[in-house]
Amino acid sequence: MAAEIHSRPQSSRPVLLSKVEGHQDVVTAALLIPKEDGVITASEDRTMRVWLKRDSGQYWPSIYHTMSSPCTAMAYHHDSRRIFVGQDNGAIMEFHISEDFNKMNFVKTYPAHQNRVSAITFCLTSEWVISTGHDKCISWMCTRSGSMLGRHYFTSWASCLQYDNETRHAFVGDYSGQITLLKLEQNTSSVITTLKGHEGSITSLWWDPVQRLLFSGASDHSIIMWDIGGRKGRTLLLQGHHDKVQAICYIQLTRQLVSCSADGGIAVWNMDISREEAPQWLESDSCQKCEQPFFWNIKQMWDTKTLGLRQHHCRKCGQAVCGKCSTKRSSYPIMGFEFQVRVCDSCFESIKDEDRISLATFHEGKHNISHMSMDISRGLMVTCGSDRIVKIWDMTPVVGCSLATGFSSR
């Protein structure tokens, strides 16, 4: 069935379809079961549960399995009905779930890491389970034999992972704020490049293999789009969250990016426009507008008998300016600045009212969000977090693509 494209009025917002409650600790992962009214959850309370919607409209666990260690990450492959659950002790457990989602069989345990597992992905074509952990490494293991194929170590905790099945490229974000692009071979790996742009730890990644775009969210409250396949080195900065960005999902059909932050913020970014790349910050010993020296420029201060000024930067042109030459603030959504940011006075005059029109919509999830995932074909989203509540949302009013959801509003 082809998707319908709807207009997106500003007043539209996500519709809360259901709340799923029952975990005793932080819910670390929640995934919607494709083509089913069901959710799979994993929690720090050491349980992994499969919830199915009953005739009453409520969700009840059809499977309840207790692990030996807190559950920290999860991957589910629907076609083969295989579930991989990462744990705080570094192990990954594989299960096979029945067609009616009422029974689950243990398959094997993978000794993937020496510390907390942070992310997992499964590749059916190569039969690899790939994971990252707080032991500062990415590992890839053979699901047929259960044996370790390779590891690559980083200088910081590896926090998130995306994998391109076709090219065997892995993207790994870490706590230093760096993203490493690796080529994984059967028993070896090679570093292709590293991406640096965030000022905080990487918390989430999303790879779109069609447009070859990588999106990264970080604890610095920002998102960066990296154009891997096209214009090399091109990056777009998106700033619209008030807290660390916990999860992102790019919808290729409508060219929209959905992001969630720790304070419950849900943002939907319009990426189907020509955005401007934020400028590199220029360095100077004196203000590039009035030429007054900055406070470390001892020679010019001595020569002109003036007190040095503090350095700032205009977010629109990137020039180094003093406070007197950058007294204005403005949003500039075309460059990703949905908030008001510092701009120099001359740039402020060049920004028109229409340039300040938002290119994203912002919504309130009303709970701490530590993880989000989407079933894009149905326009559904599930969020979970430290409040132990799982929420299922109909996102079609804001993302504009709709198939028969299978879920009904309360």
TrEMBL record:
SUPFAM superfamilies: FYVE/PHD zinc finger (SSF57903), WD40 repeat-like (SSF50978). It is found in: Early endosome. It comes from the Eukaryota. WD repeats lie at residues 20-51, 195-228, 238-279. Its main location: other. GO terms for biological process: positive regulation of toll-like receptor 3 signaling pathway; positive regulation of toll-like receptor 4 signaling pathway. GO terms for cellular component: early endosome. Pfam families: FYVE, WD40. Residues 281-352 form the FYVE-type domain. Keywords: Endosome, Metal-binding, Phosphoprotein, Repeat, WD repeat, Zinc, Zinc-finger. GO terms for molecular function: zinc ion binding. PANTHER family: LD41958P, WD REPEAT AND FYVE DOMAIN-CONTAINING PROTEIN 1. Positively regulates TLR3- and TLR4-mediated signaling pathways by bridging the interaction between TLR3 or TLR4 and TICAM1. Promotes TLR3/4 ligand-induced activation of transcription factors IRF3 and NF-kappa-B, as well as the production of IFN-beta and inflammatory cytokines. This is WD repeat and FYVE domain-containing protein 1. It comes from Podargus strigoides (Tawny frogmouth).
